[in-house]
Amino acid sequence: MIIDAHSHVHDPVADHVALLDEAGVDRAVLFPTRPHPERATDLAGLRREMAVLHRALEGAENGADGFARAWQELDAALAAYPDRFIGFGSVRLDSTPEDIAGAVARDVVGRGLHGIGELTPPPGGAAAVEPVLRAAHDHGGLPVVVHGSAPTTEPDLHTLARLSARYPSVPLVVSQVGGQHWMTAIELVRDTPNMYLELSTANIVFALRLAIREIPERTLFGSDAPYGDPVLARAMVERVTPSGEVRERVLGGNAAQLLGI
Predict the structure, then answer these.
(1) Which residues, at least 6 apart from 79, have a Cβ–Cβ distance to it below 8 Å?
(2) In terms of CB atoms within 10 Å, which of 104, 184, 193, 223 comes out highest?
């Protein structure tokens, strides 16, 4: 089974399914999203959508209305394609620990979702993830996915590793190979047994090669669609791994084991 471990709700959802079909991907982890860059038809439209993304990554796009719309879109996508998508749910990191625990119980576990993410703490703010890890631990070790590229900083990655070590039953996935800090991300994930590294949107091919070589059992193929493309992301993984067990694990076996499917 080929599993894209990182994707966001598309508008329309059928376009996403068509991309998965073209890439030969059986299932995709699906996160709710507020920006929709795939809606843009020109540069001005893309700038508007990316501005929403940048505000979200900086912790400034946390209105209740935006979260509600994102949840509605996720619910609709999962209902339309239950055999293709593996739903994850996000929580507001600016909430109290008690509210975060309630949101995980209600909006993630209560909806029958498979994990929590993609979390986007502001730069320098990775410590805000700890109440989520605590709640994930309380619910049997739900996987937690955290944005790894900019504006995530190198100190943020170290913070995530320290927090992960406190909750060894919780799989913590760092996305986008850690962005420009990919060497640090590889080292931290390699040395923290419950951390995983998702491989989407890498712009340096040997970042993937070295990540897979160092952590073959905890690296995950992902596209970050619509920001990345499942066809290209799969081709890059296949380019840097020989056919056989390691490639199969990265393209889906590791994710299937992590998600219990």
Answers:
(1) none
(2) 223
